[in-house]
Write a structure and sequence with these properties.
This protein has 462 residues and is of the alpha+beta class. The protein is built from 14 helices and 18 strands.
């Protein structure tokens, strides 16, 4: 049953769409690039801007909280004693804007074209944070209260791996106590296909250095008697997978769950055309484990990817050398029930075992982000599904995502909380790329969805 005040809430947010758009453009204008020290002041200014918007929405407890790195914007409304408490998470930092030349309009002067708002941070994640602040404001202005208690955490380091967020969570555990976390930093499956994400992959990585001779050598004098580190590295990396795209590292797939026939049928029924996807990506065809569905490979199977290889001469023309070293960076996206430490150890052990003679190998491990999975049968997820159906006019499908949001894993591991992943971005929003954009239909539909969400969660979590 829809709450009796729902029509008034929707009427309010629709009447204020132009204001919300102006507010989002003003927030985008702050270049909160967390990766670049020159923008540290802008990241702080963005946090202060978020706190001011929280206060304008009616959150009675709003302040900038320090983390040891870039700050967190925090706000709360706790005026519903006895009702459930939700924690809304998002981030206000953004990716670097380069290459500037590829932007059609300035990245921090957001412009509307063809029903989309173009600007860095428009959808990742300032626009999706603003959806919640607008919905909170609507409840407080129309009803004078919220149906449940709300805490909002908008982080400033998500784009740089949330380096200080876990220590922040541990320190602020009491302040952040709640019944459920709501995250709006994800996308739907496609336009006009409302979706709820129920799984996120984890992440670990390696940096490999293969050492050869003490210095670069003349390839004519020494070729044939000194092992080339680039060749050795290529041999090691090629040994990681078989011809069918399956990782051959012993223990790599430990814990990986096979999908049920019903789950595979559900994935197969989604509107996904591998040939069209390949064409859109500019590749001849999709690759990976050939016996798996493409969406299964993207969401529910672990990956092992080479992110970069370098060594030797990179300049114009020729320089005939045997380089003294070669390097590579690898990452693995993990799925639920994989142990990050076990995967890191397994890959490190395998690479050292297959290293050819004549070189020495140094491997640095990093990352400890577990995959997270929330059951679609959880009452909070069911509540989110009802809210999304009300906001977008059709029931959502349940999807996974191949990406990683470190704080989601942190909430799971440190606070042991169920999480609702209810983002409304589109797959082609160009996040992290030039011309990032937020479809305004998704933005406004997202605001309406969040107004319904708080009522639905209040009923589901009692």
């Amino acid at each position: 049953m829809i709450a009796p005040h729902a029509d008034a809430l929707v009427e309010h947010v629709r009447a204020n769409r132009a204001r919300y758009l102006d507010e989002l453009r003003a927030w985008i204008a702050i270049p909160s690039i967390s990766a670049q020290p020159a923008h540290a002041g802008d990241v702080r200014r963005s946090a202060e801007h978020a706190v001011a918007r929280m206060r304008a929405a009616g959150l009675t407890d709003a302040e900038v909280l320090e983390t040891g790195g870039h700050p967190v914007a925090y706000g709360a409304w706790l005026g519903a004693p006895g009702a459930p408490t939700i924690l809304i998470y998002g981030h206000h930092d953004v990716q670097p804007d380069d290459p500037i030349a590829l932007w059609t309009s300035p990245p921090f002067d957001a412009q509307v074209r063809d029903g989309k708002l173009y600007g860095r941070g428009a959808v990742d994640d300032k626009g999706q944070c603003l959806m919640h602040l607008a919905a909170i404001e609507a409840h407080l202005r129309v009803n004078g209260k919220l149906p449940l208690n709300v805490k909002v955490v908008i982080e400033g380091e998500e784009e740089v791996s949330s380096a200080h967020f876990e220590s922040f969570l541990a320190r602020e555990k009491e302040r952040l106590a709640c019944d459920c976390v709501v995250v709006s930093d994800t996308a739907v499956f496609a336009e006009d296909v409302p979706s709820l994400t129920t799984s996120l992959r984890g992440l670990v990585g390696w940096e490999i250095t293969v050492h050869g001779p003490a210095t670069d050598l003349h390839s004519g004098y020494y070729g044939g008697i000194v092992k080339n580190p680039l060749e050795a590295l290529a041999q090691m990396l090629a040994a990681l997978k078989d011809a069918h795209g399956r990782v051959v590292v012993p223990g790599f797939y430990d814990g990986v769950r096979e999908l049920s026939p019903a789950e595979r049928a559900e994935i197969a029924a989604l509107p996904f055309d591998p040939a069209k996807e390949a064409a859109a990506l500019g590749v001849p065809e999709l690759s990976g484990e050939s016996v798996r569905l493409p969406l299964e490979r993207m969401w529910m199977r672990p990956t092992l990817e080479i992110n970069g290889m370098y060594g030797g001469y990179q300049g114009d023309g020729s320089k005939t050398i045997i380089p003294s070293y070669a390097k590579a960076k690898l990452t693995s996206r993990l799925v639920p029930h994989q142990d990050p430490h076990a995967v890191r150890h397994a890959v490190t052990t395998f690479l050292k075992r297959v290293a050819p003679k004549g070189v020495t190998v140094e491997i640095e491990e990093h990352g400890d982000v577990r995959a997270v999975e929330t059951s679609r049968d959880h009452p909070a997820v069911a509540a989110a599904a009802r809210a999304m159906e009300l906001g977008f006019g059709k029931p959502p499908v349940f999807i996974g995502t191949g990406g990683t949001i470190g704080p989601v894993s942190s909430f799971d591991r440190i606070l042991h909380l169920p999480q609702v992943l209810i983002g409304v971005g589109l797959p082609d929003d160009a996040i992290h790329a030039p011309n990032e954009r937020f479809d305004l239909g998704q933005f406004y539909g997202g605001i309406e969805t969040m107004t319904y969400l708080y009522d639905e969660l209040a009923k589901a979590l009692r």
